[in-house]
From TrEMBL:
<feature type="domain" description="Squalene cyclase N-terminal">
    <location>
        <begin position="72"/>
        <end position="362"/>
    </location>
</feature>
<keyword id="KW-0752">Steroid biosynthesis</keyword>
<keyword id="KW-0444">Lipid biosynthesis</keyword>
<comment type="similarity">
    <text>Belongs to the terpene cyclase/mutase family.</text>
</comment>
<dbReference type="InterPro" id="IPR002365">
    <property type="entry name" value="Terpene_synthase_CS"/>
</dbReference>
<dbReference type="Pfam" id="PF13249">
    <property type="entry name" value="SQHop_cyclase_N"/>
</dbReference>
<dbReference type="Pfam" id="PF13243">
    <property type="entry name" value="SQHop_cyclase_C"/>
</dbReference>
<keyword id="KW-0413">Isomerase</keyword>
<dbReference type="GO" id="GO:0005811">
    <property type="term" value="C:lipid droplet"/>
</dbReference>
<dbReference type="InterPro" id="IPR018333">
    <property type="entry name" value="Squalene_cyclase"/>
</dbReference>
<dbReference type="GO" id="GO:0006696">
    <property type="term" value="P:ergosterol biosynthetic process"/>
</dbReference>
<feature type="domain" description="Squalene cyclase C-terminal">
    <location>
        <begin position="377"/>
        <end position="706"/>
    </location>
</feature>
<keyword id="KW-0677">Repeat</keyword>
<protein>
    <recommendedName>
        <fullName>Terpene cyclase/mutase family member</fullName>
        <ecNumber>5.4.99.-</ecNumber>
    </recommendedName>
</protein>
<dbReference type="GO" id="GO:0000250">
    <property type="term" value="F:lanosterol synthase activity"/>
</dbReference>
<keyword id="KW-0443">Lipid metabolism</keyword>
<dbReference type="InterPro" id="IPR032696">
    <property type="entry name" value="SQ_cyclase_C"/>
</dbReference>
Length: 715
């Protein structure tokens, strides 16, 4: 995509990824001496799209030949901390938060970052109109185009650069910056490129409501409340940076109309049709009107009291996550709050400057902010499970690699709860595994579950050390059991704290399903399978609780199956991804194609989607529309999910599975790798995000599971 020919580039052979106890940061080596002392690893070269020089391997004939080649390649991507690493791109609204925050807080942006961030945006601009969308596959939106345009300008691109001219033209065609959704308007207001009066209110006072109030933010989905938390502080303080020449210039560039002539209060609900995914409900519009009036009459002492409460929660979030924060939206917003409240020279500001780096990544297209501070625990746990599925876990040649991975998981389990966790509305975390690294510090149900499975497999294999004692595995089980929601399913971070009606208050406009913790077949399956496996090793611990939890979970899994036999997947694309999980759950119950109507319908659904070449391929539109949508090409990941799903269903006819696996084998490269295909993941229905390691993890898992089931026969 994009026309990047006329932007600068750094010397990619000078970039290195440092992996330190799961903390991943990129460094640009300026001198030749540094380059000599710190050679570029194969993994760095791969991440940067440089030639890895890895040799061609013997041509695979059987599934296990292919698995071995896959492992041979993937083992080169294991990094110093013992985990597998990769980039996590997709969303296009994350880098702006970081760059704008660095601008606001006078944090120097290194020249090599500027160069590479500009290059990334040049590569990701939609070639036909020069704008950017919500994510890399999206058509241009006002949100994406406004914020990324600002990034280009802060990073030093001149307004008359052809890329800037083209992007501006597209922005104006879409109506200009006035048409931004709520989060866009928020960043603009802080930059003094918009007026707070033109924003639907985000009052800090919501946090001062008594906890029993049904709309209290503590009940909202964690990502939603943790974003609105710092926003509410900045909104209530109505902070704007002082106007300077650059800002005056941007006002002219971003708006087709005269900035000073805009009647701000009439534009609170002005949002471009290209941006809206989830329109306001009538109730939300009414509530916003009430809050506008409230904002005018609310006494200052109440506002100040509420801001103190919010500031306390922001501080707790910073400290409990070692300043990493929950994610890449609240991280920079918290930074702004600490800069305003604690002062530019405070330790909090220094810590925030330091942790911004944890989110940055460089690839062949340039530099950008990752979706999280990495996928360290998640990918590592999954790959270990793939090694187990193929039986490769037992081979001595892989032992060192796997022991390093086990030591990583040992180190990364969260060992303490948060300080006064009740006061920060946090769920317990002692015993949990996070998605990324321990210091980020957030319990995730399925990350805990996948790690528990990986640890049990490794520690149960002869020849492996057992660094994680029974007590700590039981702690993980306690966390999992504590997370089941009242609908019997599992969400990712917390139990559901409020009814579905709260979605009516979704004011983000560009995302669906952001207001509460929903249950998901993916998370539910991860927990059920982990608990089931746990009972094989430790049959007595909380025996009855586990039995009851599994029983209820399966009721949930069956309930959310659609009439056509499918399940909607919320984190991977999409129906094939969910089928792989849901059918694994049902298999545990003993429900297979032989004896279960649910499974039969699911199998029929999957078979009806197999493509002519034997593969499966789903477009990201499946996720955003909720209707199965073929990709124009089959995809190795979807094919692997579908094959695994059919194997969990114990579907007796091997043919469709063999056809799928054959396609996976044909797509494998001579050095054992699989190439990137369509984007693999999603969140909030509408924003796509890549899971680059899935093409190694699930391909090798599907091939390995087949060989374990049917023997390693040529296909
Ligand atoms: C993630 C990444 C991991 C993902 C899985 C573990 C794969 C999933 O099974 C459960 C949900 C979870 C933990 C998840 C939740 C939402 C995240 C954190 C993300 C998709 C990565 C980025 C996204 C976050 C919300 C991005 C910021 C956007 C906002 C709307 C705040």
């Amino acid at each position: 995509m994009g026309a990047n020919s006329n932007v600068e580039k750094t010397d990619l052979s000078r970039w290195r990824m440092k992996s330190d106890q799961g903390r991943q940061t990129w460094h640009y080596l300026k001198t030749d001496e540094e380059v000599r002392e710190w050679p570029q690893a194969t993994s760095d070269k791969y991440f940067l799209g440089l030639d890895t020089g890895l040799p061609a391997l013997p041509t695979p004939k059987t599934p296990l030949d292919s698995v071995k080649n896959g492992i041979e390649f993937f083992s080169t991507l294991q990094v110093a901390s013992g985990n597998w690493a990769c980039e996590y791109p997709g969303p296009l609204f994350l880098t702006p938060g970081f760059v704008i925050t660095m601008y606001i807080t006078n944090t120097p942006i290194p020249q090599e970052w500027r160069t590479e961030m500009i290059r990334y945006l040049a590569n990701k601009a939609n070639p036909y109109d020069g704008g950017w969308g919500l994510h890399v596959e999206d058509d241009s939106t006002v949100f994406g185009t406004t914020l990324n345009y600002i990034v280009l300008r802060i990073c030093g691109m001149e307004a008359d650069h052809p890329l800037a001219v083209k992007a501006r033209k597209r922005l104006h065609e879409l109506g200009g910056a006035l048409y931004n959704p709520h989060w866009g308007k928020t960043w603009l207001s802080i930059l003094n490129l918009y007026c707070w009066d033109g924003l639907n209110p985000i009052p800090a006072e919501l946090w001062a409501l008594p906890n029993w109030v049904p709309i209290h933010p503590w009940r909202w989905w964690i990502h939603c409340r943790m974003v609105y938390l710092p926003m509410s502080y900045i909104f209530t303080r109505k902070h704007q940076i002082p106007v300077n020449d650059f800002i005056l210039q941007l006002r002219k560039e971003l708006y087709p109309q005269d900035y000073d002539s805009i009647n701000w209060t009439s534009h609170r609900n002005t949002v471009s049709g290209a941006d809206v995914y989830y329109p306001h409900s009538t109730i939300l519009n009414a509530l916003n009107k009430v809050l506008v009036v409230w904002g005018k009459f609310c006494p200052d002492f109440v506002k100040l009291h509420a801001m103190r409460l919010v500031k306390d929660l922001v501080t707790r979030e910073d400290e409990d996550s070692d300043y990493t924060c929950l994610g890449p939206v609240n991280n920079p917003l918290n930074f702004v709050v600490r800069y305003l409240d604690d002062g530019p020279d405070s330790d909090a500001v220094k810590m925030h400057r330091y942790t911004l780096e944890d989110y940055m990544w460089v690839n062949k297209d340039g530099m950008f902010v990752n979706g999280t501070d990495g996928l360290q625990c998640w990918d590592t746990s999954f790959f270990i499970q793939s090694m187990h599925a193929s039986g490769m876990i037992e081979r001595p040649e892989y032992r060192d690699m796997l022991i390093r991975a086990l030591n990583f998981l040992d180190d990364q389990q969260i060992k303490e709860n948060c300080r006064d966790q009740g006061q920060s509305y946090r769920h317990i975390r002692k015993g949990a595994w996070p998605f990324s690294k321990r210091k980020q510090g957030y319990t995730v149900s399925d990350c805990t579950a996948e790690a528990v499975k990986a640890v049990l497999f490794l520690q149960g294999t002869p020849g492996f050390p057992r660094p994680i004692p029974e007590r700590r595995i039981c702690d993980a089980v306690d966390v999992m059991l504590s997370l089941q929601s009242s609908d019997y399913g599992f969400s990712e971070y917390e139990q559901s704290r409020v009814g579905d009606w709260i979605e009516q208050l979704n004011s983000a406009e560009v995302f669906g399903n952001i207001m509460k913790s929903y249950s998901f077949p993916e998370c539910t399956t991860a927990v059920v399978t982990a608990l089931k496996l746990f009972t094989q090793y430790y049959p007595e611990y909380r025996k009855e609780d586990i039995k009851e939890c599994i029983r209820k979970s399966l009721i949930y899994i069956k309930r959310v199956q659609r009439k056509d036999g499918s399940w909607y997947g919320s984190w991977g694309i999409c129906f094939t991804y969910a089928a792989m999980f849901a059918l694994e759950s049902l298999e545990i119950l003993g429900e297979t194609w032989e004896n279960s109507g649910n499974v039969k319908r699911a199998v029929e659904f999957l078979l009806s989607k197999q493509m002519e070449d034997g593969g499966w391929g789903e477009s990201y539109k499946s996720s955003s529309t909720g209707v199965y949508t073929h990709h124009e090409k089959s995809q190795v990941c979807n094919t692997a999910y579908a094959c695994l799903a059919l194997m969990h269903a114990q579907y007796p006819d091997r043919k469709p599975i063999e056809r799928g696996l054959k396609l996976i084998m044909q797509r494998q490269q001579a050095n054992g790798e699989w190439l990137s295909e369509a984007i693999e993941g999603v969140f909030n229905r509408n924003c796509m995000i890549a899971y680059p390691n899935y093409k190694f993890i699930f391909t090798t898992k599907a091939l390995g599971a087949f060989a374990s089931k049917y023997g390693d026969i040529p296909i």
